[in-house]
Amino acid sequence: MSVVSVTTGPRRGWKSVSTWIGAVIVGIAAICALFAPLLAPHDPFAQDLGKRLLVPFWMEGTDPAHLLGTDQLGRDYLSRLIYGCRISMLIGVTVTIVSAVIGIAIGVLGGFLGGRVDDAVLFAITTRLSIPVVLVALAVVGLLGSSMHLLVITLGLLLWDRFAVVARSTTMQVRNLDFVAAAWCAGCSRFRILSREVLPNIASHLVVVATLEIALAILLEAALSFLGLGVPPPLPSWGLMIAEAKDYMFFSPWVIVIPGIALFVLVLGINLLGDGLRDAFGTHRTDT
């Protein structure tokens, strides 16, 4: 079982080049997500069949008005890539918020109260870990239809287990410390101890988990969109862009390479930032 432990060593995370690379990548993605209407040079939904499959700027015969070319319907690829970043970040963050609320509440209660409550929490975590996320998401979206709201709710209800495991293990460590005992002696209520003493002291661990969950949610959204069960068209999801481009990959390979690289770089940046935060907060994993 994986347990998150606290160390008091030097905070090396922010001195790492990889951490700053990840922070820059995530920062650029956040800017694209927040200011997509200002950064996109064209309407990502506007079609022009007379300009379909224009090549990007590094290839011969490019159109200066479309730096990354156009897709099979003549839509500007750079604009769709920017709006696709917005959708990926939106889904990643909202799914993580939903799963964090569920997982942290369950994990903190189990770790703090112990006894039968903790047994019930462990049973819930074990049950969740036995459920295949992708298959359940495919079944739910396939039965109820594809929409962004349904996708966020479905993934949020399936990705809370990591938050619960980390919240439970760190809460079990914190509840035995002196400042919690002092709060009990001062007559503080359970809610006040949890909100003022426990949660602030486990927040750093949960931030690291959140970065990993954002990357996982983005990948799952792209996979479902690639299968046609994620974000509905014509929304420019990166997974949907890859799915629409697969028929042209041998003749115009850049239409599938560009969103694929964008997805790879974003997930890599989030994971690099998460590793840096883990080192900065002084946490590590041990197997027992």
Structure report:
By secondary structure, this protein is mainly α. 66% of the residues lie in helices and 3% in strands. The protein contains eleven helices and two strands. It has helices at residues 17-34, 36-39, 77-113, 115-129, 133-144, 148-156, 161-174, 178-185, 190-226, 238-245, 254-280; strands at 2-6, 283-287. It has a two-stranded antiparallel ribbon. α3 (77-113) crosses α7. The longest helix has 37 residues, at 77-113. The radius of gyration is 22 Å and the shape is elongated. The model is unreliable at 1-11 and 283-288 (pLDDT under 50).
Summarize the structure.
With 288 residues, the chain is mainly alpha-helical.
The strand count comes to 2
Distance between the termini: 6 Å
Mean pLDDT: 84
Largest sheet: 2 strands, antiparallel
Strand order of the largest sheet: 1-2
Low-confidence stretches: 1-11, 283-288
The count of helical stretches stands at 11
Q: What letter string, H or E per element, gives the SSE order? A: EHHHHHHHHHHHE
Question: Helix fraction?
Answer: 55-70%
Gyration radius (Cα, Å) is 22 Å
Strand residue percentage: under 5%
Shape: elongated
Class per helix and strand makeup: mainly alpha
